[in-house]
């Protein structure tokens, strides 16, 4: 399953989201959801422990000026790669 976070993690039930992640899932932050990738945020340890592949949309990270503060556990990808993730996962959950 592909989990996409579009809102700030501070406006989302992150405990529920993280509890639903399985190792075979991919996680993508876009729009304000890219804030989940900030170093030292309160949700970072738990989402890293989930062992899912973590992605952020590069354009959204740069648009918010936070590229220097993103955890190295996240891969920055383009919208083209986002499309390939949607093709890979027939099931998706939007947060």
TrEMBL record:
Keywords from the named record: Cytoplasm, tRNA processing
One cellular-component annotation, GO: sulfurtransferase complex
Chief site of localization: cytoplasm
Claim: Transmembrane is one of the keywords in the record: no
Alphabetical list of Pfam families matching this protein: DsrH
Compartments it resides in: Cytoplasm
A GO BP entry: tRNA wobble position uridine thiolation
Matching HAMAP family: Thiourid_synth_B
Family the UniProt entry places it in: Belongs to the DsrH/TusB family.
Function: Part of a sulfur-relay system required for 2-thiolation of 5-methylaminomethyl-2-thiouridine (mnm(5)s(2)U) at tRNA wobble positions.
Subunit organization: Heterohexamer, formed by a dimer of trimers. The hexameric TusBCD complex contains 2 copies each of TusB, TusC and TusD. The TusBCD complex interacts with TusE.
PANTHER family: PROTEIN TUSB
Protein name as it appears in the record: Protein TusB
Gene name in the database record: yheL
